[in-house]
């Protein structure tokens, strides 16, 4: 039996900001009796509750695990410094928000890393939980600390802090880990880890030795146990219609960053944008059927009450049945006050048509396009093919159809980029405003240009690239601002949003770092660094000082602004996302020559290697439509849910 | 150029008009007391949709449900008497709405009663609240003299931080009644000895506070006791609003839904 710590937490809550984030009690959350199951999971998103609660991955695994008869799962999030200080003072440990049970009592602490900026928070969470920071110092009385999520495709910087890593989709592997944990009860930690190393997709960093050469690069990564495979392959969940999760989305009382019902309409992407780690490591494309999408939306709205539905994927307009899905849902929920949205990075007229369908009974405030690169040459380098004429024409169509504002997403610091490439963003933005004014027949159209600094990521063709120095990025963005405002008449209708380049350099260190970076993370954390994704908590100076203090043969620049050779062993080379290393290198060379690569959904296979390596295939949804209709026309109300309890009142 | 496009302001698919107004009394209990008014409002909107209550929507491109909120209990305070008015597009049995919404609410929020709105505005029927305040670490014996000092004063001003900076607030003039109350209904039955010992050191205040601007909150009453009698509260107090209503000449709060219950049904 494990007791709730809520009694000791409660008196602290009136003294902290937004206490509701720590009390749990979300609609559709629940707790199981501790002793009713053999295996206990604490699922963690290592950022604030408001960011972590809506995370789809965590929500899916929470449901999948709790549906099992042999497991329970509760959730825990990073605690803000105000409460963390009080918890330390009063001896309250890191707790789950479901049962307020101490995290240290669980069998597995599964941490989902959407980004590397959660690494310092991992250490805060371990520390508050009373779990030794280093995996080597843990024994069977401690939880197995498991890292998953996209950042876990290079877990080497946190290799010292985690016991196991799960590569790829988590739906199936969490069950297999559960079974091993139960079967190895009573075994030594080493035995447990060796058994886990045999589970496909599970990487046990502690079972490998890493040596370094005189040049500072990795000489070899050597398994130290028979149980540890030389290469660990990612997991791939096939047939999303078999995995309609989350079925019952968590509805928090606290305000969070995404307050909507999210349905993943497909997983994977083969657009081939060379900067995009998500698109590379989640291949192949696996679509959910329109019927499956329709059922999830209906069920999700019923159990959540949300008034917005997000149709999620890496490029939602690319679903082969998106037209039917958009029309079907728009018809079904017309007049019910239900908003529909889909994130899309496409820059074409079809995107506008879709958005128009989805918003036909709702707000039409802003539309987003992501050309990513300022010049046509640079867009060829990153394989994001869209011509300036196309973009202007598309945006013109959007203004014509009633939108008054567009957002344009770009990156700065891309490989081969020059000042001139970035300055062309200004030319493009000016063109957009001109076309917009003409199409809308009015002067008040607006465009917002949002710019992110590019960070080279593992398992992408740009994994060999030199990251741009923050000073270079900052200087280019200053010049861009001047160029945008060089025409005051156009510039006043253009907003420019960007962050300075320094945090991106640290993200670069954490993204492509090896095990030596673990010491830097620990030092930065000991010096007070956490919540790296929040500018008010991020200290570049602290990170630089930690890197200077802890790195000996190599330095911060070596990990970030240095281009790698073809034959250098990369820290993640033994972790297999299915992508063929030779293909990645060729794609990198193509990028340098501004040569494009097609999408294998519509052109023949270009041998990226994923399908044959992983034994997977592209899964396109069979043609079909979202089933209609729960809301008969003429009987419109504000609710998409029909409650039979009210039928009598309708005189039916 | 598309000319037949809808322009901002005219909704292409207006929702049905309001057919009736319902008034709901609801409670915020236990852990839910840590929710803010915005948290409760959001939660209630989603709950009404989950429950399938046909709430009327405002017109326009960004339709909002027709809900009117009355002054909400502050974050951290519990309440048995919060009020909300709901515009619905159909005539509905208030008892069924009460049951269905209650079942769809998360733990800690509960529907106490739903009535069909009669004539008159509910806001005109509320000008005061009755609060019960638990004071851990401050037993009744220590509260008693402080209360006497407070009641004997003609003015007790505390500083209240508002959006526009600190403002002085005369708590004495806002307080219609302040005393000790002996009812202890929430003591955990299975509390161990230590908890019981703690309960013995926990006093309980009852106060009726007029709704002033800015509103005097339970915290302000405690601050006033500190200001007037030097009383220190070592732990955060726990306040629960037991009733809201109009303060009548006998000093009683008149139930704001009484007039709706008495109104002839349409």
Verbal overview:
The complex is a heterodimer of chains A (652) and B (266). Helices cover 33% and strands 13% of the residues of chain A. The N and C termini of chain A lie far apart (52 Å). In chain A, strand 7 (208-212) and strand 8 (218-223) form a beta hairpin. Chain A is built from 22 helices and 19 strands. With 652 residues, chain A is of the alpha/beta class. Chain A has 2 domains: 6-233, Rossmann fold (3-Layer(aba) Sandwich); 260-516 and 551-614, pyruvate-formate lyase- activating enzyme (Alpha-Beta Horseshoe). In chain A, the strands form 6 sheets. In chain A, strands 2-1-3-4-5-6 form a 6-stranded mixed beta sheet. Chain A has a 4-stranded parallel beta sheet with strand order 15-16-17-18. A 3-stranded parallel beta sheet of chain A has the order 10-13-14, with helices on one face. In chain A, 54% of the residues are buried. Chain B is an alpha+beta fold and 266 residues long. Chain B is built from 7 helices and 11 strands. Chain B has helices spanning 37-50, 94-104, 140-152, 171-174, 193-200, 218-229, 258-262, and strands at 20-28, 67-69, 78-88, 109-116, 128-135, 157-162, 165-170, 175-180, 203-210, 238-247, 253-254. In chain B, strands 1, 2, 3, 4, 5, 8, 9, 10 and 11 form a 9-stranded mixed beta sheet that branches. A two-stranded antiparallel ribbon of chain B has the order 6-7. In chain B, helix 3 (140-152) crosses helix 6. Chain B is elongated and about 55 Å long. Residues 1-13 and 185-195 of chain B have low confidence and may be disordered. Chains A and B meet through helix 9 of A and helix 1 and helix 2 of B.
């Amino acid at each position: 039996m494990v007791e709730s710590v809520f009694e000791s937490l409660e008196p602290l809550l009136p003294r902290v900001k937004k206490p509701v984030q720590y009390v749990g009690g979300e609609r559709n959350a629940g707790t199981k009796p501790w002793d009713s199951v053999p295996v206990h999971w604490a699922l963690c998103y290592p950022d604030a509750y408001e960011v972590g609660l809506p995370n789809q991955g965590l929500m899916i695994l929470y449901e999948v695990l709790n549906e099992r008869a042999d497991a329970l799962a509760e959730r825990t999030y990073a605690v803000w410094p105000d409460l963390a200080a009080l918890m330390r003072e009063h001896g309250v440990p890191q707790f789950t928000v479901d049962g307020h049970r101490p995290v240290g009592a669980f069998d597995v602490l599964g941490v989902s890393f959407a980004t590397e900026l959660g690494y310092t928070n991992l250490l805060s969470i371990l520390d508050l939980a009373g779990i030794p920071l280093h995996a080597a110092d843990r024994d069977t009385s401690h939880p197995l600390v498991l890292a998953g999520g996209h950042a876990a495709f290079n877990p080497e910087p946190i290799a010292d802090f985690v016991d196991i890593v799960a590569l790829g989709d988590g739906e199936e592997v969490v069950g297999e880990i559960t079974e091993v944990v139960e079967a190895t009860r009573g075994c030594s930690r080493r035995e447990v880890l060796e058994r886990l190393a045999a589970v496909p997709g599970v990487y046990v960093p502690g079972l490998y030795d890493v040596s370094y050469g005189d040049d500072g690069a990795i000489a070899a990564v050597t398994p130290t146990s028979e149980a540890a495979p030389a290469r660990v392959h990612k997991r791939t969940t096939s047939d999303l219609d078999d995995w309609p999760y989350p079925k019952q989305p968590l509805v928090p009382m606290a305000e969070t960053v995404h307050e909507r019902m999210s349905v993943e309409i497909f997983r994977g992407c083969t657009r081939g944008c060379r900067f995009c780690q998500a698109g590379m490591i989640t291949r192949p494309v696996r679509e959910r059927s329109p019927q499956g999408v329709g059922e999830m939306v209906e069920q999700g709205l019923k159990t959540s009450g949300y008034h917005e539905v997000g149709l999620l994927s890496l490029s939602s307009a690319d679903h082969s049945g998106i037209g039917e899905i958009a029309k079907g849902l728009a018809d079904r929920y017309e007049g019910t006050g239900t908003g529909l949205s889909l994130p899309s990075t496409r820059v074409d007229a079809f995107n506008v048509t879709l958005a128009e369908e989805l918003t036909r009974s709702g707000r039409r405030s802003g539309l987003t396009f992501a050309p990513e690169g300022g010049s046509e040459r640079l867009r060829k380098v990153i394989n994001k093919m869209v011509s300036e004429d196309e973009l202007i024409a598309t945006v013109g169509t959007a203004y014509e159809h009633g939108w008054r504002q567009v957002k344009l997403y770009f990156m700065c610091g891309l490989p081969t980029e020059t000042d001139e490439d970035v300055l062309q963003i200004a030319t493009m933005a000016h063109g957009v405003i001109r076309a917009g004014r003409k199409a809308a027949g009015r002067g008040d159209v607006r465009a917002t240009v949002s710019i992110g600094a590019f960070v080279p990521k593992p398992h992408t063709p740009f994994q060999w690239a030199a990251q741009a120095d923050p000073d270079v990025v900052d200087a280019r963005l200053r010049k861009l601002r001047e160029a945008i405002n060089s025409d005051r008449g156009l510039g006043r209708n253009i907003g420019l949003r960007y962050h300075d380049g320094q945090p991106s350099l640290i993200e670069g260190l954490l993204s492509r770092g090896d095990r030596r970076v673990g010491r830097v993370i620990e030092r930065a954390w000991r010096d007070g660094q956490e919540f790296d994704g929040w500018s008010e908590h991020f200290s570049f100076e602290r990170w630089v000082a930690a890197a200077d203090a802890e790195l000996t043969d190599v330095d911060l620049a070596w990990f970030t602004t240095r281009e790698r050779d073809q034959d250098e062993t990369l820290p993640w080379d033994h972790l297999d996302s299915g992508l063929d290393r030779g293909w990645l290198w060729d794609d990198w060379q193509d990028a340098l020559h501004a040569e494009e690569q097609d999408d294998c959904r519509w052109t023949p296979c270009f041998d990226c290697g994923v399908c044959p390596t992983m034994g997977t295939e592209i899964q396109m949804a069979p043609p079909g439509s979202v089933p209609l209709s729960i809301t008969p026309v003429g009987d419109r109300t504000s609710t998409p849910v029909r409650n039979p309890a009210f039928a009598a009142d309708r005189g039916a | 150029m598309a000319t037949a496009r809808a322009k901002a302001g005219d909704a292409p698919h207006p929702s049905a008009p309001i057919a009736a107004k319902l008034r709901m009394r609801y409670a915020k209990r236990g852990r839910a007391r840590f929710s803010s008014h915005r948290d409760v409002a959001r939660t209630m909107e989603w709950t009404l949709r989950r429950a399938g209550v046909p709430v009327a929507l405002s017109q326009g491109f960004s339709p909002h449900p027709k809900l009117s909120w009355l002054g909400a209990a502050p974050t951290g305070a519990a309440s048995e008497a919060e009020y909300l008015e709901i515009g619905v597009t159909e005539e509905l049995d208030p008892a069924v709405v009460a049951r269905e919404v209650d079942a769809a609410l998360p733990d800690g929020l509960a529907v106490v009663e739903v009535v069909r709105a009669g004539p008159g505005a509910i806001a005109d029927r509320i000008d005061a609240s009755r609060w019960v305040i638990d004071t851990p670490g401050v037993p009744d014996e220590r509260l008693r003299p402080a209360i006497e000092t407070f009641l004997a004063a003609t003015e007790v001003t505390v500083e209240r931080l508002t959006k526009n900076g600190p403002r002085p607030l005369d708590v004495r003039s806002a307080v219609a009644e302040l005393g000790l109350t002996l009812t202890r209904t929430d003591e955990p039955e299975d509390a161990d000895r230590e908890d019981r010992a703690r309960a013995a050191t926990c006093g309980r205040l009852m106060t009726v506070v007029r709704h002033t601007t800015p509103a005097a909150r339970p915290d302000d009453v405690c601050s006033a006791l500190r200001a007037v009698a030097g009383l220190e509260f070592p732990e955060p107090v726990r306040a629960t609003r037991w009733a809201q209503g109009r303060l009548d000449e006998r000093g009683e709060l008149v139930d704001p839904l009484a007039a709706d219950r008495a109104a002839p049904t349409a």
